[in-house]
């Protein structure tokens, strides 16, 4: 056989590869020279990496390479003569020759032979870059960024643990119910195991259908926690299955057994391990083998438990195997059916319990499973707390409390709620948005260093530098405050740092007190407004909160109408509400509300008295009734009726008087305490208000952005040439914009030639004058190339695709503008 | 000549009808669509950066100009070719641009060309004359068109829907039949394209630089977000490759990172995973499936908290990575707390790749980075180019593979290639049957048994140089899956060498 040597050609800035062919039949005749690294490739063969030397000298020192991008512009060192001839042998063993010049290749990530590039730092001692390093905003690198970051982190940690706790509490009931269900179904299994009559019945698999709602993203956490709870309290054998892991029954069983044996291994590690690892490979995945395994395991634990594990009383003998189907709707019908039918055959030996996670409605079980199969299940339904209630709790615990110093402004809260309501119903995402706003706030607002507990914040104010004081002075709300002061004080505020610090401390305290008062009154107002017909101020407390944050709530029409409605409430309702309010105010520790509570109690007492008085008052209307009956004359009747009406409207009953008093009292509370946050001085310190940033990052509109960029380049490229009146389109726009504009005119298919023609007409019009010099049937090559580029870019963006329906046509993929 | 005239006349008639009714309607519908989009945009991102431009962005031309230009366009097409259909010319030269006095100039120019080139001069001139006053009337009363547009707003959505189905209902395509064959420079290969583009003057360099500087100032913020558990997704017009490269070279030099070119035509998730296991984790061994591999990676990263990996993916939405399974794996990978993913997307429908579950795994923070820089690398692979499939890569790979083979093997391939070229005009050419091929090779003293031939064929097949197909009669047919032009070039080159 003939041997032919291969020339390696080099292209600057990229790997040196055998051009055109990645895989070749090559072999090194000599053993690989020193410095050549070899590495097995996925299939057959090895990859050789050859460090190249500059002019035969030492390896190029990477550190000396300038990190600037013009490193590419440096002339590459000459390709050295390769000491060992790289020879190719047809039909020999196969290698891939992949010559990469190290150092240079470090800079480049384009290659015709591969798409993944791994880069490792050269120095062994890695600089430990902490997150805090990136916290520094380059614009105003203030000295306190470290402190801010620490504050941010600790605050977020607190919030996070709080949310987890909320989640836990909310789901506790559900978990308890499921455990009770397991216990019950399992006891049946144990007791009636021997009875023949129950054998018939016991081919039914106990099943818990868990309706979780459409917020799929939150389910993971629920299931994770559920399996933990079950493992702690009921059984070590808990398996979670996802539809995407189980395309067939075989995969399902594999996954099932794999997870079961894993948890078995975890349970008692020492001697069983080899047994399991061996069996894991060997055992055919079937329920028979699963049954054998189960028997073996339970026997062992039975014999061992007296000595070892009697302490945990919660562990039962022959614990059930719980199989959780996380997303039941996504499973293929056949897999589910097969699994259920097969396992129902084994139910006497294998205490199997299924849990279906359902996102839609329990009806889906019957739609997925035919009657013959679903009759094998003994289904009990469990309802998870709805995501809306979950959100309400989260908002209540995170936002409507003065526990956390950080607050959201009305717009931000609105954005987050809108994303929740109109996009995903995901509490998880809401919390993510909340996290982002925390981070953004601390990152962008230098004074957020004061966004911590009051005593700490006061201390921090004391150690403020002059610059930071200047920052306080430049806050809009502080400026407003200064303007409202007398002139001497104004001067002092603007010139003396110490005075500013003092005032800031006082203002921070005011802000704190404002919050402490705000939330109880808000909740109190919510009690009154939440049960009114048509809910003028919203049904949920978050809506009321938004309304109060937005502007002075007592000036709005909705508030007016709400008060009108409250004035018409009946006594029983009013009393109940007042009692609730008392409870709320009592639960808040501030002494501010001592008087309020007393006043409310007084009202309640008066209502009580009314009842006593009521019996006395009853006579009067009775007498008038009697009078009414006496009159037979129509004229007189009318007159007395009018009199009655007058007297009624003039003379209010005691109850009505009292009711007005109550409403006025509530109104005064609202006016005193529910002023919008934006009116408070220093609110910028604790309120995050950049709603647009949040919206941009969480709820982006990539298509709108593309369309804007293509349709109105001036939005991004601030060039006067692109500025055009509304309606017209500049022909100096980037090529892709012109091509896009032209394609909007077309129908389903676009003729490339016509498109090109139109494109060149527009483009040559830029040059303006010499349209004649271009021959009518000859298209300028450069314009052609530009057109090609624009078209292939449009293809990459997904606006068009090649079509085979007609030669030289492309199909349009978007619709509109036609 | 007769059908010629007839055609032109029919066209003229058609034009008359269309220009009066349809065009007017078209403008209306255009505007109503604009209204829909504008309203939608304003609603959806009231707080977004588009707050100012929501409505304006979508506005089109004044109807006056569009009417006139359309007319001009029609006549210019008329002068070029007779077989044009109305649809395409109406559509395609309905271009709007700001050229002072372009209108009056070109009008005279076009009418001149009409009279020169068109043989049925009278007819077309007549048409032109008859139509001009008609047109100008329409054009001079643009306000008339605008008023009903407002009325239409009520059922704008339904009209939009109807429009869509109308356009897709008929299988007839109203475009001209011209092909690129007729143009001189109809096909360019990659190299010439690059050369030509480098000659083209760069536009808006300063503005683009300003944009990218604006984005570069966000680098540290990106790092912050990455470290806080978010992943970064870049979107917007223009290649984001340079931006990401700059990010990589300026901030990631001291950490382990993996760059994935999503636009690379043969990238797979498996190769991404393999890069991680083999080069980052230094693991030797194979895996049964990507899922196993993923499990392994996740386990490793969970065990060792000091492991960190920055994952840069250019074009996460590329053909090869957009599949559900790939996205699932990448999403799971990115959900690891010590894997930091920063990716870019370009396709307009890219967000459709992800359902809620995947999105929550990815935990994206979106960043708009509109750069306007050309997609050089992204479109440099031949498959993404629409207009010119040069086959130069195929040719060079052919040459290189064959150069490493024995002369006999080359001879065998030549035989097959020649035979295929002889049959290039036969559309139903099935390929060369193995028996015939063997006979020919034997006659040329290239092989001595069919076993040797088969061995050679295996070699070819491994390099994807030939394809075998079984015919209906069970005979094996051999075919070179390369275009005729490339094959001719190849044989020509071979002859030169010899």
Automatic annotation (TrEMBL), chain A:
Molecular functions (GO terms): DNA replication origin binding
Protein name as catalogued: Origin recognition complex subunit 3
Name of the gene encoding the protein in the UniProt record: ORC3
Alphabetized InterPro entries for the sequence: ORC3, ORC3_ins, ORC3_N, ORC_WH_C
Lineage per the UniProt record: Eukaryota, Metazoa, Chordata, Craniata, Vertebrata
Domain Origin recognition complex subunit 3 insertion: from-to ranges: 461-691
Domain spans labelled Origin recognition complex subunit 3 winged helix C-terminal: 703-815
UniProt keyword Flavoprotein, yes or no: no
Functional note: Component of the origin recognition complex (ORC) that binds origins of replication. DNA-binding is ATP-dependent. The specific DNA sequences that define origins of replication have not been identified yet. ORC is required to assemble the pre-replication complex necessary to initiate DNA replication. Binds histone H3 and H4 trimethylation marks H3K9me3, H3K27me3 and H4K20me3.
Protein's organism: Crocodylus porosus
Sequence similarity: Belongs to the ORC3 family.
Biological process per Gene Ontology, one example term: neural precursor cell proliferation
GO cellular component: chromatin; DNA replication preinitiation complex; nuclear body; nuclear origin of replication recognition complex; nuclear pre-replicative complex
Residues spanning the membrane: none
UniProt keyword Phosphoprotein present: yes
Localization: Nucleus
Domain Origin recognition complex subunit 3 N-terminal per the UniProt entry, residue ranges: 107-450
Keyword vocabulary terms for this entry: DNA replication, DNA-binding, Nucleus, Phosphoprotein
Subunit structure: Component of ORC, a complex composed of at least 6 subunits: ORC1, ORC2, ORC3, ORC4, ORC5 and ORC6. ORC is regulated in a cell-cycle dependent manner. It is sequentially assembled at the exit from anaphase of mitosis and disassembled as cells enter S phase.
From TrEMBL, chain B:
GO cellular component, one term: nucleoplasm
Record domain Origin recognition complex subunit 2 RecA-like: where: 207-368
Pfam families membership: RecA-like_ORC2 (PF04084), WHD_ORC2 (PF24882)
Bias (Basic and acidic residues) ranges: 118-137
Subcellular location(s) of the protein: Nucleus
Highest taxon in the source lineage: Eukaryota
Residue ranges of every copy of the Origin recognition complex subunit 2 winged-helix domain listed in the record: 425-483
Gene Ontology molecular functions: DNA replication origin binding
GO biological process assignments: DNA replication initiation
Region annotation Disordered: where it falls in the sequence: 109-154
UniProt keyword terms in alphabetical order: DNA replication, Nucleus
Family: Belongs to the ORC2 family.
Function: Component of the origin recognition complex (ORC) that binds origins of replication. DNA-binding is ATP-dependent. ORC is required to assemble the pre-replication complex necessary to initiate DNA replication.
Subunit structure: Component of the origin recognition complex (ORC).
Record's protein name: Origin recognition complex subunit 2
Organism for this UniProt entry: Crocodylus porosus
Taxonomic lineage: Eukaryota, Metazoa, Chordata, Craniata, Vertebrata
Protein's gene: ORC2
């Amino acid at each position: 056989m003939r041997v032919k040597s291969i020339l390696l050609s080099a292209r600057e800035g990229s790997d040196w590869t055998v051009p055109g062919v990645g895989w070749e039949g090559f072999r090194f005749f000599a053993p690989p020279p020193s410095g050549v690294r070899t590495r097995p490739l996925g299939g057959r063969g090895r990859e050789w990496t050859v460090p190249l030397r500059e002019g035969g000298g030492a390896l190029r020192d990477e550190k000396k390479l300038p990190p600037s991008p013009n490193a590419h512009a440096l002339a590459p060192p000459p390709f050295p003569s390769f000491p060992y001839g790289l020879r190719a042998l047809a039909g020999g063993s196969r290698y891939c020759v992949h010559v990469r010049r190290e150092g240079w290749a470090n800079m480049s990530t384009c290659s015709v032979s591969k798409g993944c590039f791994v880069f490792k730092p050269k120095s062994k001692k890695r600089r430990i870059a902490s997150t805090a390093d990136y916290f520094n905003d380059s614009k105003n690198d203030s000295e306190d960024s470290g402190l801010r970051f620490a504050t941010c982190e600790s605050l977020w940690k607190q919030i996070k643990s709080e949310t987890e706790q909320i989640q836990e509490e909310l789901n506790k009931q559900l978990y308890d119910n499921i455990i009770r269900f397991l216990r019950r179904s399992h006891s049946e299994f144990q007791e009636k195991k021997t009875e023949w009559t129950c054998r018939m019945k016991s081919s039914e698999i106990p099943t818990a259908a868990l309706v979780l709602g459409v917020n799929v993203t939150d389910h993971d956490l629920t299931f994770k926690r559920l399996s933990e709870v079950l493992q702690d309290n009921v059984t070590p054998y808990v398996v979670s299955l996802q539809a995407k892991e189980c395309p067939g029954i075989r995969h399902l069983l594999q996954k099932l057994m794999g997870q079961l044996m894993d948890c078995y291994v975890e349970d008692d590690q020492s001697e069983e391990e080899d047994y399991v690892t061996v069996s894991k490979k060997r055992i055919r995945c079937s329920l028979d083998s699963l049954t054998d395994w189960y028997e073996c395991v339970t026997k062992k634990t039975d014999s061992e438990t007296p000595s070892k594990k009697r302490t945990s009383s919660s562990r039962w003998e022959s614990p059930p195997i719980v199989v959780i189907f996380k997303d039941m709707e996504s499973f293929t019908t056949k897999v589910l059916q097969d699994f259920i039918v097969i396992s129902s055959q084994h139910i006497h030996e294998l205490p199997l319990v299924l849990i279906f996670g359902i996102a839609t409605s329990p009806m889906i079980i019957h739609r997925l499973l035919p009657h013959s199969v679903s009759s094998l299940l003994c289904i009990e339904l469990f309802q998870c707390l709805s995501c809306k209630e979950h959100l309400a709790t989260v908002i209540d615990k995170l936002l409507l409390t003065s526990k956390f110093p950080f607050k959201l402004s009305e717009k931000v809260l609105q954005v987050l709620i809108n994303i929740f309501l109109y996009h995903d119903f995901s509490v998880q995402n809401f919390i993510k948005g909340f996290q982002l706003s925390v981070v953004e706030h601390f990152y962008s607002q230098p004074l957020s260093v004061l966004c911590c507990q009051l005593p700490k914040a006061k201390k921090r104010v004391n150690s403020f530098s002059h610059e930071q004081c200047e920052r306080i002075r430049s806050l809009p709300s502080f400026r407003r405050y200064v303007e409202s002061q007398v002139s001497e004080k104004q001067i002092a505020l603007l010139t003396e740092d110490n005075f500013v610090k003092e005032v800031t401390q006082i203002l921070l305290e005011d802000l704190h007190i404002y919050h402490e008062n705000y939330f109880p009154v808000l909740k109190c107002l919510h009690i009154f407004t939440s049960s009114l017909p048509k809910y003028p101020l919203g049904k949920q407390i978050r809506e009321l909160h938004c309304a109060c944050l937005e502007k002075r709530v007592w000036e709005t029409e909705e508030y007016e109408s709400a008060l009108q409605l409250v004035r018409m409430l009946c006594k029983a309702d009013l009393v109940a509400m007042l009692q609730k309010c008392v409870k709320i105010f009592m639960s808040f520790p501030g002494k501010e509300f001592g008087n309020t509570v007393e006043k409310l109690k007084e009202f309640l007492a008066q209502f009580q008295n009314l009842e006593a008085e009521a019996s006395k008052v009853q006579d009067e209307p009775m007498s008038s009734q009697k009078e009414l009956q006496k009159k037979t004359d129509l004229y007189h009747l009318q007159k007395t009726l009018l009199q009655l009406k007058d007297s009624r409207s003039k003379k209010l009953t005691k109850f009505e008087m009292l009711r007005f008093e109550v409403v006025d009292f509530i109104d005064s509370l609202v006016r005193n305490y529910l002023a919008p946050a934006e009116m408070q001085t220093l609110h910028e310190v604790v309120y995050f208000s950049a709603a647009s940033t949040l919206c941009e990052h969480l709820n982006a509109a990539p298509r709108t952005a593309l369309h804007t960029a293509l349709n109105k380049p001036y939005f991004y490229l601030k060039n006067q040439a692109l500025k055009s009146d509304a309606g017209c389109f500049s022909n100096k726009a980037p090529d892709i914009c012109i091509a896009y504009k032209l394609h909007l005119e077309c129908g389903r298919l676009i003729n490339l030639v016509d498109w090109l023609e139109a494109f060149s007409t527009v483009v040559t019009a830029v040059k303006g004058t010499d349209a004649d010099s271009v021959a009518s049937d000859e298209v300028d090559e450069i314009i052609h190339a530009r057109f090609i580029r624009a078209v292939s870019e449009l293809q990459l963006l997904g606006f068009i695709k090649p079509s085979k329906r007609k030669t030289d046509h492309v199909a349009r993929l978007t619709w509109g503008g036609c | 000549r007769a059908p010629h005239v007839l055609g032109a006349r029919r066209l003229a008639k058609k034009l008359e009808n269309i220009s009066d009714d349809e065009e007017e309607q078209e403008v209306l519908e255009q505007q109503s669509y604009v209204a829909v989009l504008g309203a939608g945009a304003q609603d959806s991102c009231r707080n977004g950066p588009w707050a100012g431009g929501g409505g304006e962005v979508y506005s089109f031309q004044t109807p006056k100009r569009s009417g006139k230009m359309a007319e001009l366009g029609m006549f210019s097409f008329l002068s070029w070719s007779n077989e044009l259909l109305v649809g395409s010319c109406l559509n395609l030269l309905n271009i709007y641009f700001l050229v002072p006095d372009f209108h009056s100039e070109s009008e005279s120019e076009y009418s001149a060309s009409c009279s020169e080139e068109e043989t049925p001069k009278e007819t077309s001139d007549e048409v032109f004359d008859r139509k001009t006053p008609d047109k100008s009337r329409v054009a001079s009363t643009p306000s008339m068109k605008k008023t009903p547009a407002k009325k239409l707003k009520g059922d704008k959505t339904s009209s939009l829907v109807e429009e869509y189905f109308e356009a897709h209902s008929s299988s007839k395509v109203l475009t001209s039949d011209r092909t690129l064959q007729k143009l001189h420079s109809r096909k360019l290969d990659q190299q010439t394209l690059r050369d030509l583009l480098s000659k083209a003057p760069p536009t808006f360099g300063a503005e683009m630089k300003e944009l990218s500087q604006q984005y570069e100032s966000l680098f540290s913020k990106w790092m912050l977000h990455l470290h806080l558990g978010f992943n970064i997704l870049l979107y917007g017009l223009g290649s984001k490759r340079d931006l990401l490269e700059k990010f990589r070279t300026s901030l990631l030099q001291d950490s382990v990172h993996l760059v994935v070119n999503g636009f690379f035509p043969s990238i797979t998730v498996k190769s991404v995973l393999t890069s991680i296991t083999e080069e980052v984790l230094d693991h030797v061994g194979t895996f049964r499936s990507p899922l196993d591999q993923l499990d392994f990676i996740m386990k490793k990263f969970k065990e060792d908290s000091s492991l960190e990996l920055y994952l840069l993916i250019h074009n996460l939405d590329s053909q090869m990575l957009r599949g559900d399974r790939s996205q699932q794996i990448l999403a799971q990978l990115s959900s690891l707390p010590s894997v930091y993913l920063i990716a870019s997307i370009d396709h307009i429908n890219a967000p459709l790749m992800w359902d809620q579950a995947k999105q929550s795994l990815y935990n994206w923070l979106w960043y708009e980075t509109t750069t306007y820089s050309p997609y050089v690398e992204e479109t440099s692979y031949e498959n993404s180019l629409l207009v010119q499939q040069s086959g130069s890569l195929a040719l060079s790979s052919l040459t290189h593979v064959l150069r490493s083979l024995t002369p006999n093997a080359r001879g065998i391939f030549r035989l097959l290639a020649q035979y295929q070229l002889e049959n290039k005009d036969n559309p139903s050419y099935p390929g060369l049957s193995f028996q015939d091929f063997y006979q020919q090779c034997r006659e040329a003293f290239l092989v001595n048994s069919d076993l040797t031939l088969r061995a050679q064929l295996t070699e070819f097949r491994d390099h994807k140089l030939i394809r075998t197909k079984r015919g209906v009669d069970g005979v094996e047919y051999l075919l070179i899956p390369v275009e005729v032009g490339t094959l001719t070039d190849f044989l020509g080159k071979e002859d030169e060498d010899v």
